[in-house]
Structures are given as structure tokens and as C-alpha cells.
Design brief:
The complex is a heterodimer of chains A (319) and B (379). Chain A contains nine helices and twelve strands. Chain A has 319 residues and is of the alpha/beta class. Chain A has one domain: Luciferase-like domain (TIM Barrel, Alpha-Beta Barrel). By secondary structure, chain B is α/β, with parallel strands linked by helices. Chain B has a domain of 113 residues. Chain B is globular and about 60 Å long. The chains are: A alpha/beta (319), B alpha/beta (379).
Chain lengths: 319, 379
């Protein structure tokens, strides 16, 4: 089953190119948080599988955003992106247990590991390199441990828990869906051990990554996903990628996207690209698209039905 | 003088009354007839989680004129940060007082989280900073730092949390935390820091409170004990050039007549679990030991626990939580609250079981009789 998860807008509102003559007397009330609120409602209404609350140091905080998203919808999943440094694994699990209990188990964790040391130090995190990978491994082990075992005791280099573990009813919900990413052997080790979904970048070879993961953890079904940008072409479009762009495009950074690689096309063209990846084993699409509100509707109203048609055709062909 | 009245949001389910010990609101007890949120409807779960009841308590307390609600945090409870995030947009003026142990969060991330929540709520986040009593519970949380060091960590956390929020760029190299060139985005940095209610009775706690607390928060205790505690905090704060404010957490059983209020307590006491009562009488728990230390003579009946007029020390037998609270007529309870105000208290966290209905009652019947207080503003 293919899932489309929309990356919520974050960071300062983009410049609208109105020039110095423009005046706006509304005083910045309509900021990124409002845009995030409206986008997650749109994603819910338009039938997307979920939203990603990015860990953007210049934007809103992801757990706050994820909680708001989960509460405002019935179906929408919310994936909070964070580095393990944000809290202890026990506390992260505790917060998540409450969110799972109260939202029908719709929370996901996108755990980031490493990154630019200066950016990490600005976040009060001084663990880098191989240590960051080991810490992530311990974090995920301890968090899952307190959730699923009682008593749970853990002795690691970064975390220790003595006679821990959640009781009823905190332990009742499903552990959050874990999203991990990366291409290095260490990152693949981490995914093989802990990921429910391993996220690729466009250009990665899904079959090769699948083989790497299977070799490390035979029998453990890690799903493959991809993080990408999209722009849905439509009549009367006056924003988005240059008119001549079509198909795979690496210029999304010029539109302010975090994810530079992606696809530009009509819903049918995008569905064909998604479907080609799906046939290679990629079933989760974490999509960045702008303006997020309008694109959420386009994805829900146009891309998802086209994608479902292609999946149905394949099923019919197979018969 | 203005007084802030908070209520409490139960993070561990709620009882239908103070005389029925089972928490049948929420899912801590087995499901069955009479349990709600979640309940069974036609034999199947009705799809309502406990958070729906919490939302109702928050709305009820808001309508009753309470300024906000405390969300306590223990290993067995739901989490206040997560719950506040879920309920952010379901009240308009009602504040969420989030209890948390700073040691479990990174101070930079906590600042981002709180500032985003300030934006989502319109500035309605309040902190109840707790530092943990130590022992097995602390190791359950995965925290091995020793008692006095935990207060040093709390102190450093609050220092960094404020620094990264208000200074840019912010660099700090401390014992527990290191930040280099940190900053919140401008929209977040523009938010107000949450007010800090600080709990803890030890010398280390009082020292940390003196440095960082807006309010020093104590559980209800007999008047003389509270006065001693406050004097110690005042003295310590004065040395740091600060003037502390005081807050008290106090449970309330208030009825039209004093007799009706004591009827509730008597019925609850008589139906308390005999084993719990026996443990309690021998002082075999920390909370009980502290409560018993205020009680003269043997405990043979519920009134033996009335250490001062209307101040009763047996609440922990009737529901989870602190031992002392107020029992009496509406007027008596209001008088006792006025006496606490005279002692220097200018914020209260009141509570009554069941929280939903009692918020209405206390807001309508008791608070209007408190004379030392401004009437809590309706939003």
C-alpha cells in the first residue's frame, strides 16, 4: 500500500516578491505555524497518509506540531522528526505513549543522526560521528525496551535504565513507526536494527539498499521510502519550477525546498514516476511541495487517484 | 493583590467520587459498565480516549473561572507535554501548567518546544519544575544523577533554557550542558518565557528555587509548617536579591454545610483499602511519614487527621496524591484560603474529585467568597 506523507512547511514565511512598495498591516499573524495548521488539515481532508513535522531549527518545534496535527485529524499520521539529543529515550517514549494512546496510534518518529557539528552544537548536542550512531542505537533500544518490557534494565554508554518499563495502560499503544535514512554502512546497520521505514533519496538504488538491509537483518521487513520534492503542474500555474522543467528535477532548492531532488509534472506523469518506484519496492513517499496547502489538495485530489488507478491496473494484469 | 487560581487535570484517570477508589474515568481500570473515556457502547469501545475527558475538565475549569490547570507527571501517568500539545487549541484562556523534570530534556530543545507551544496556545504555557525525589523512581526514568546534583542540573537547565531563548547567539559551557551559537528563530524568541512554579523542599531545592522560581510551590501542609518553609525560602531568596512568591497545591472538599463535607470524607475513609490504611498508620511510605509527623496521637477515626480546623491529612487514602487538603463548608474553605493568602500565598492549585464536576462547584461556590483575591478573570 503506497503512502504519501507531506512534509509540513517550516521556517520563516517565504518572500512573496511584492517589493518595497507593498504594505501589509496584518503584523505577521499569518506565520509558519498557521500555515502548518492549515496544511495538516488539508492533508487530512485530502486523504494523504500523514504529515512530517520537520526538525527545522528556524521553524516550529516538531513535537508541538505533531501533537497539533494528530489532535486535529482522525486519519492523519504525524511523523515527528528529531535528533536523539532532544530528550532521554525514556522521556521520548513517555511522551509518545500518551500521543499514541490518545490518537489511535498515529505517531511516527523520524530519527536524525549526526549532521553538521556546528548546527548540532547550536542545539546543545555535542555528540558527533560514530558516537552519534551508537547513541541513536541505544536511544531506540532503550525507548522500545521501556515500552515493551517490564521490568526493563538497560546499561549503555549513553543511557541507563534500572527496573524501568511502562505499565498498563501506557504500554498499550503501538510503538511509533520509526523512519531512518542514510547510505553509510553504519546508517544501514541502524536501519536494519531499528527502522520500520528506511528513507532513500532520489537516485539511490532501491534494490541495492534492499539487499543491504536484508543481508544485515534477514527476515526483518524494513519498508523502503523516499524523500522527494514534487510540483504538480496545473492550468494557470504562476509559481513553481520554470515552465520548461518536466520530469526529474534537481532545482527545488531554488524554490526554497529542503529536499532539492524531485519530480515536476502533471498528476498522471507524477503517478507514473511514483508507480515506477513502487514497482522497485518503494512504498512510502515523503513529499515536500509548495505552496503546501494547495499542493496537499492537488496531491489528494489528483495524484492519489491516478496512483490508485495504476496499482489497480497492475493487480488486474497479474490476474 | 491578585491571586491566580489553578485547577488540576488528572493525568492518571479520575474517580467518580472521593468515596470510590477505582479510577473509572480513563483506562487505568478494566473496562466495564460505568467506565468512561473509553466506554463501551453496544458492547464495543466507543472510540473516546481519556484525553477527551481531560479536555472536558479543562473546559469546565475554564468556564468556572480557573486561570489554568496543573498537569502532574509521574512514571505511571500520561505525559503533560504531549497532552498540552494535544489540548493546545481547545481552550481559549486556560493555561497549561506542565510538570516536568528538566533533566529529561535538552534545554535548547525544551525552549523550542515551549516557544512553539506558546505560539500554538497564545502564551498559555506555565512550568511546574520538579526535580524528582530520587530512589528507584529516578532510575526508572533512567536518571542516575544524585539528589543535590539534580538540583544543580535543574538550575543549569533553567539558566541555559532562558539564555538560548533570550540571547542570540547563545554560548554556554557548563557542567551538564554545552551550547555553541544557539538561538531560537525570531518568531519563537519573541514569545514570553513560561512562568516557573518550582517544587522541592530540600536545601538544594530551595537554593535552586531562589535563583529561578517565579513561584515557590508547596503541597498543602499545616499552617506552621508552611510558614517555616516559606520563611526559609524568603531568607534564601533575599540573599540572592530576589523576592519569592508562594503557591500551594490543596485539595478541597467543600459543601454547602460542613457536615456534608465531612460526610464525604468519613465515607471515603471508612471504605479505604484496609491494607492501605494499615500501611498509612505505620508510616511505611514517604508521603505518609511526612503526614503523620504533623499528627499528634493515634489515628482511630477520620477526625483524628484534622490537624487544624478544616485541614485534613488523609487525602492520600482517598485518591492518589498529596495528604493534606481542606474540608468544610464553602465559607470555611474560603476562610482557610484567605488565611493562606495572609501567609503570603498568591497562587493556588486547587483540586477536587471528581475534577470535572468539582471545578464547577469550587468555581461557583468557594472562589466568590475568597476576599483576599481578585475574582479570577473570565476570558
Amino acid at each position: 500500500m503506497t503512502e504519501v506523507i507531506l512534509r509540513l512547511p517550516s521556517g520563516p514565511a517565504p518572500e512573496r516578491g511584492l517589493g518595497p512598495a507593498a504594505t501589509d498591516m496584518r503584523g505577521g499573524l499569518y506565520g509558519p505555524l498557521e500555515e502548518a495548521f492549515q496544511t495538516w488539515r488539508a492533508a487530512e481532508i485530502a486523504g494523504l497518509a500523514g504529515v512530517l513535522a520537520p526538525d527545522d531549527p528556524d521553524g516550529e518545534e516538531p513535537w508541538t506540531v505533531a501533537a497539533g496535527a494528530l489532535r486535529s485529524g482522525r486519519h492523519l499520521r504525524a511523523v515527528a522528526e528529531f535528533a536523539p539529543s532532544f530528550a532521554t529515550p525514556v522521556y521520548a517514549a513517555k511522551m509518545s505513549a500518551t500521543l499514541q494512546r490518545f490518537t489511535g496510534g498515529r505517531l511516527g518518529w523520524k530519527v536524525t543522526v549526526g549532521g553538521d557539528p556546528a548546527e548540532r552544537a547550536a542545539q546543545g548536542d555535542t555528540v558527533t560521528g560514530a558516537d552519534a550512531l551508537r547513541r541513536a542505537d541505544e536511544f531506540l533500544t532503550a525507548a522500545r525496551g521501556v515500552w515493551q518490557e517490564r521490568p526493563f534494565t538497560f546499561e549503555g554508554d549513553f543511557y541507563r535504565v534500572l527496573e524501568g518499563g511502562f505499565g498498563h495502560p501506557l504500554s498499550g499503544g503501538p510503538f511509533p513507526t520509526v523512519y531512518l535514512s542514510g547510505r553509510t554502512p553504519g546508517e544501514l546497520d541502524l536501519s536494519a536494527a531499528h527502522a520500520d521505514v528506511h528513507l532513500l533519496r532520489l537516485g539511490d538504488d532501491p534494490e541495492a539498499v534492499r539487499a543491504e538491509l536484508d543481508r544485515r537483518a534477514p527476515g526483518r521487513a524494513v519498508r523502503l521510502g523516499v524523500e522527494l520534492s514534487v510540483s504538480v503542474r496545473h492550468v494557470g500555474q504562476d509559481d513553481g519550477p520554470p515552465e520548461e522543467v518536466s520530469g526529474r528535477w534537481g532545482g527545488f532548492a531554488s524554490l526554497g525546498h529542503t529536499v532539492p531532488e524531485g519530480f515536476v509534472g502533471t498528476p498522471a506523469e507524477l503517478a507514473a514516476e511514483f508507480d515506477a518506484l513502487r514497482r522497485r519496492g518503494v512504498t512510502v513517499f515523503v513529499v515536500e511541495a509548495r505552496p503546501a496547502l494547495a499542493e496537499a489538495y492537488r496531491l489528494g485530489e489528483h495524484l492519489l487517484p491516478a496512483l490508485a488507478d495504476l496499482e489497480r491496473e497492475e493487480t488486474a494484469d497479474a490476474r | 493583590m491578585s491571586v491566580d487560581f489553578y485547577w488540576r487535570i488528572g493525568m492518571h484517570g479520575d474517580q467518580r467520587s472521593l468515596t470510590e477508589r477505582a479510577a473509572t474515568r480513563g483506562d487505568w481500570e478494566p473496562g466495564g459498565p460505568g467506565r468512561i473515556a473509553p466506554a463501551l457502547r453496544g458492547g464495543a469501545p466507543d472510540g473516546y480516549a481519556y484525553v477527551e475527558h481531560m479536555a472536558d475538565v479543562a473546559r469546565s475549569a475554564e468556564a468556572a473561572g480557573f486561570y489554568g490547570g496543573l498537569m502532574p507527571s509521574f512514571p505511571f501517568t500520561d505525559d503533560p507535554w504531549a497532552t498540552a500539545g494535544l489540548l493546545a487549541r481547545e481552550t481559549r484562556g486556560f493555561r497549561f501548567m506542565i510538570a516536568f523534570q528538566p533533566g529529561f530534556l535538552n534545554p535548547v530543545h525544551a525552549a523550542r518546544m515551549a516557544a512553539s507551544l506558546q505560539r500554538a496556545t497564545g502564551g498559555r504555557v506555565v512550568y511546574n519544575v520538579i526535580t524528582g525525589g530520587g530512589g528507584p523512581a529516578q532510575l526508572w526514568w533512567g536518571d542516575e544523577v544524585a539528589h543535590d546534583d539534580r538540583y544543580a542540573r535543574t538550575s543549569e537547565f533553567l539558566h541555559v533554557h532562558k539564555g538560548v531563548w533570550k540571547e542570540r547567539p547563545y554560548t554556554f559551557d557548563g557542567r551538564f550542558y554545552r551550547v555553541r551559537d544557539g538561538a531560537l528563530p525570531e518568531a519563537l524568541a519573541a514569545q514570553d518565557l513560561p512562568e516557573i512554579y518550582f517544587s522541592g523542599s530540600s536545601a538544594a531545592a530551595i537554593d535552586a528555587a531562589g535563583r529561578h522560581a517565579d513561584h515557590y510551590l508547596s503541597w498543602m501542609e499545616p499552617t506552621a509548617a508552611l510558614a517555616r518553609k516559606f520563611a526559609s525560602v524568603r531568607e534564601h531568596s533575599a540573599a540572592l536579591g530576589r523576592t519569592p512568591r508562594f503557591a500551594v497545591r490543596v485539595d478541597v472538599v467543600a459543601r454547602r454545610t460542613e457536615r456534608a463535607a465531612w460526610d464525604v470524607v468519613r465515607t471515603g475513609f471508612e471504605s479505604a483499602d484496609p491494607a492501605a490504611l494499615a500501611r498509612w498508620r505505620t508510616g511505611d511510605s514517604v508521603g505518609a511519614a511526612r503526614s503523620l509527623s504533623f499528627i499528634d496521637g493515634p489515628v482511630s477515626g477520620y477526625r483524628d487527621l484534622e490537624v487544624e480546623p478544616n485541614v485534613w491529612g488523609g487525602f492520600s487514602l482517598l485518591r492518589g496524591g498529596p495528604a493534606f487538603g481542606l474540608v468544610g463548608s464553602y465559607a470555611q474553605v474560603a476562610e482557610r484560603i484567605d488565611e493562606l493568602i495572609a501567609l503570603g500565598v498568591d497562587a493556588f492549585i486547587l483540586a477536587g474529585v471528581p475534577h470535572l464536576e468539582e471545578a464547577r462547584r469550587v468555581g461557583a461556590e468557594v472562589l466568590p467568597l475568597v476576599t483576599g483575591a481578585r475574582r479570577p478573570a473570565l476570558v
